[in-house]
Amino acid sequence: xxxxxxxxxxxxxxxxxxxxxxxxxxxxxxxxxxxxxxxxxxxxxxxxxxxxxxxxxxxxxxxxxxxxxxxxxxxxxxxxxxxxxxxxxxxxxxxxxxxxxxxxxxxxxxxxxxxxxxxxxxxxxxxxxxxxxxxxxxxxxxxxxxxxxxxxxxxxxxxxxxxxxxxxxxxxxxxxxxxxxxxxxxxxxxxxxxxxxxxxxxxxxxxxxxxxxxxxxxxxxxxxxxxxxxxxxxxxxxxxxxxxxxxxxxxxxxxxxxxxxxxxxxxxxxxxxxxxxxxxxxxxxx
Length: 286
Prior knowledge:
The structure is a single chain. The chain is of the alpha+beta class. The protein folds into 3 domains: 18-88; 97-192, no CATH class; 194-271, no CATH class. 20% of the residues lie in helices and 35% in strands. The chain has helices spanning 18-27, 38-45, 97-110, 132-136, 194-207, 220-226, and strands at 46-52, 56-63, 70-76, 82-88, 112-116, 123-127, 141-146, 149-155, 163-169, 174-181, 190-192, 227-233, 237-244, 249-257, 267-271. The chain has a 4-stranded antiparallel beta sheet. The chain has a 4-stranded antiparallel beta sheet with strand order 7-8-9-10. Strand 9 (163-169) and strand 10 (174-181) form a beta hairpin. The longest helix has 14 residues, at 97-110. Residues 1-5 and 282-286 have low confidence and may be disordered.
């Protein structure tokens, strides 16, 4: 298993017969829509080692990021039931006090971490002025030294995917990457790098006057501070959705186009609080 770099190479699926592959691809969707892409979906996020046995098929998965988290799936041939073992962290030493101090220095220099969380696209800003504590919050963390890369494994057992993984180049003094890791691969979620934040912020300040619909010319940080902010990203644009934190008031939805920084058509409206004794369609509840 890799212990000093991103998991490389092709998945080892040659031991699976076509019948086995068809069985797995037909069986996986019964565990939910996240499994609908079958083996191809797993292969996008993990290097797969397959071990077909008489009663079951075992798949050993190693995440393709430098975090190299492992899972083991056991799929029973009779009935298609599946058991999952993991996440298991790669072999490697935990960070020593001197290396943890280096991690804190790097995080403090970064200043803050903008995260677009999986599933719903909520923007979460972590204040890194306190270093590692600002990143982990109330959650537990485990560490590994993989080559000269420090990897932090933050356990998110109560919300979202199981692990938030962060890796840093100790020699270069740089935050390198972030990934949410789950099996199957966590849905879209990403680290919004400083240059992305600055690009969106500059675009809003220049093009963010929507006339009677309001404006966002105070910039991205102000919007994230005062509103619930969600960001989706595709090849052409960042799509921002801002709603009132208390569920009542003005909302905005607009794209910021990559490359040009121009802002497309803005959808705006007003959200009204729903009385406790009414159902979502406005009728009185029982």
